[in-house]
Amino acid sequence: MERQNITLSLPKSLLKRVKHLAVEKNSSVSGLLTQFLADLVEQEEVYQKAKNEHLALLEEGFELGTHGSINWKRVDLHDR
Question: pTM for this structure?
Answer without folding.
Answer: 0.70
